[in-house]
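Our consortium's second objective concerns turning raw sequence data into structural hypotheses that experimental partners can test. To show how far this objective has progressed, the report includes one record in full. It was chosen at random from the queue rather than selected for favorable results. The single chain below, 114 residues long, was entered without modification.
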Amino acid sequence: MELLFPLLLVALLVPMFLGVRRQKREAEKVAGMQDNLKVGDQVVTTSGLYGTVVELDDTTVDLEIAEDVVTTWLRQAIREVRTEEVGAEETGGSDATDAVEESAEQTETRLTKD
């Protein structure tokens, strides 16, 4: 009975400690990625906007989101750097079209069954 409380305490604290370490490691990785941004990088913001880095300073990033359309973002808003080139046809292309077509087919199938 004496060992029950210390074992219970250890059983609760170890997962919390490991979770905090994992979060800290992930935050350091994201901060490192944001610090290493360079002009020409294809990025995605935390809100899901795709863009290309055209200018940088200490706290902000200028992204070209369409031809001759440049917006300014905080560095912290950059979620990831894309490794492959993302073109306009890929961002609004086949995946979105396939999903719409599949949804239309499902709706049509339901209507014909009724």
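The partners drew two points from this record. The first helix runs from residue 4 to 35. The chain has one domain: 3-82. Both points have been shared with the crystallography group to help prioritize constructs.
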